Amino acid sequence: MTDASTLSPSVHPSVPRPAALARWLWAVALLVIAVVAVGGITRLTESGLSITEWKPVSGVLPPLTEAGWLAEFEKYKQIPEYKEINAGMSLAAFKGIFFWEWLHRILGRLVGMALLVPLAFFAWRRAIPAGYGWRLFGLAALVGLQGAIGWWMVASGLVDRTDVSHFRLALHLLTALFLLAALVWTARDFALMAHDRAATRPPLTRTGGVVIAVLFFQLLLGAWVAGLNAGYVASTWPSMNGHFVPEGIDWSHGAWFAFTNDPFLIHFIHRWWSWVAALALLLLARSLSRRGARTEPTLLVAVVAAQMTLGILTVVTGMSMWIAVLHQVTGAVLVAVTAASLHRLGRSGA
């Protein structure tokens, strides 16, 4: 018979498994990209306010009966979006928008489980290298925080307005992209460790800090464009409705208010700051190439080119939903590739 004394740490001696940890984090990173994709569809189909309550446990299941669907539909009918925009919507149409918001929330929960369950297993097996336990638990906690931010975002659209706050939407998206970048960085730490147990953790370089700042601003602008539906204000490129600087910018409340709230101005800055971000990323690719890297520079150039092309196509197609979604997904992929590239740059000491 086994007693408690035999269940000592010596049963599972500390044996770090960095290769397995790296594969696990890459898989979670792919799930995060899937969540971002569905989030884009949810936004573009105006589905985000279809579920008016936050039920982390019971909300896993959608309504299973006609009475359940009617009850959810009645809750939706009480909010301004229905009264001012979707009055008269059919139950079948409501089920369509409900599906995307439900799937988005389910995938968010799946990301949390995909982090927590393997993390508990690896911790029990004492397979986590020294110094990484708190980081991994922090990433798992960030998923919970992301869920809370998501509900805080939804709540902003349930009273007195027909849409969510674009500031809260930006925080929700940027938190997801930060989680994605952290997963990629940590996965590359583990992959490096699997190749060379004596390898040191690469630092974030000053060049990397500049690249992050430039890209962060572009991602923030992109989130505001989405939250304000600013992509719809112009469907021409490079001009905006025949003008380089668009007509229609509302300066009446001051420059700061216009910069943070005016869809014409935010769209304008987003489309031209993209060239600054592209230049920064291409210079990063050149720097890595000069240091002997091959994979990261090639991926950076390819993803930057794809993202720029998709951005233009999103505009000229009048916000074609699937092109716009692909633009958002490629943006998430770009964040992942940039994180991997900055990790590689840190190894070169640049």
Describe the structure.
It is an enzyme of class 1 (oxidoreductase). The protein has helices at residues 18-44, 66-77, 80-86, 91-124, 133-155, 166-195, 206-227, 255-261, 263-290, 295-316, 321-348. By secondary structure, it is mostly helical. The protein is flat, with a radius of gyration of 23 Å. Helix content is 69%, strand content 0%.
Observed structural traits:
350 residues; mainly alpha; 2 domains; 11 helices; 69% helix; flat; disordered N terminus
Structural topology:
Layout: H1 18-44, H2 66-77, H3 80-86, H4 91-124, H5 133-155, H6 166-195, H7 206-227, H8 255-261, H9 263-290, H10 295-316, H11 321-348
Helix pairs in contact: 1-4, 1-6, 1-11, 4-5, 5-6, 6-7, 6-11, 7-9, 9-10, 9-11, 10-11
Subcellular location: Cell membrane; Membrane
Transmembrane segments: 20-41, 106-124, 136-154, 166-187, 208-234, 264-285, 297-316, 322-342
Main location: membrane
